[in-house]
Amino acid sequence: MTVEKMAVEKMALAKAINESLRRALETDPKVLVMGEDVGKLGGVFRVTDGLQKDFGESRVIDTPLAESGIVGTAIGLALRGYRPVVEIQFDGFVFPAYDQIVTQLAKMHARSLGKVKLPVVVRIPYGGGIGAVEHHSESPEALFAHVSGLKVVSPSNAGDAYWMMQQAIQSDDPVIFFEPKRRYWDKAEVNTEAIPGPLHKARVVREGTDLTLVAYGPMVKLCQEVADAAAEEGRSLEILDLRSVSPLDFDSIQASVEKTRRLVVVHEAPVFFGSGAEIAARITERCFYHLEAPVLRVGGYHAPYPPARLEEEYLPGLDRVLDAVDRSLAY
């Protein structure tokens, strides 16, 4: 067996993040992991399982239930040269820390004219699909993408999760790392010795000629199912995994749309003022003379997240995305 093959292992997305955190803790003594129940319990999704046992309570820290305090403490630690990785237990729990994130974490670099760097990673399990209620199934990525000074990323598979976490920790700028909780148990090959591409570069998941599907995080897998269903009807769909919501790789989207001439953007977050709106506007400006149909968006509704029995109606599914594909191709 070659060294390269030994470096490749099939693992779940949650396990990939765990292994990436472990590697960072081993490599850099300034890396810390903090959050509610991340230590002894290993996190509610067991993403940090075993890390406190192996690295101790001074490196993997169980915090009080106080999100503002968690992020505020991380900012102080970063000012002293540490690289904290903090976990917000569920997406909807981030809002008590929103003030710290947008007024301090995002602004310190500009406020200090570049003299102060805050290498903080804020991990947020996000999205629905697990039968949980409001505050446990939100998709607030657009709120953070709107704030200058923050990088906002979301992996869709285990391989990206491993390497994007490494790159986020190594970044001198704060990174909001959205983890698609419904994909935590999806497995894929992870090459721990690979040379990763740029953190904010989109990736073509599937080549196609008739229409481009753009997605990130939990919706990439759904788009693959949509492309499979469309292929049975003779339609060739290209899938672009954005990987990063801020900054956005508009060049890759434009290159795909200039080829397929149609675009459907899919995300779990509400369509109203969602990230798809910015993509639609910018691609319409860039590709006006290439488009053969208006850019369409598929996402959640502009309503509070519903109880579990209505979740499938709220979230984008196969039929809703296929309907958008049909409408686009009908032009």
UniProtKB/TrEMBL annotation:
Domain of life: Bacteria
Keywords, ordered alphabetically: Oxidoreductase, Thiamine pyrophosphate
Single GO MF annotation: oxidoreductase activity
Cofactor(s) for this UniProt protein: thiamine diphosphate
InterPro entries on file: THDP-binding, Transketo_C/PFOR_II, Transketolase-like_Pyr-bd, Transketolase_C
Coiled coil segments of this chain: none
Protein's name in the database: Branched-chain alpha keto acid dehydrogenase E1 beta subunit
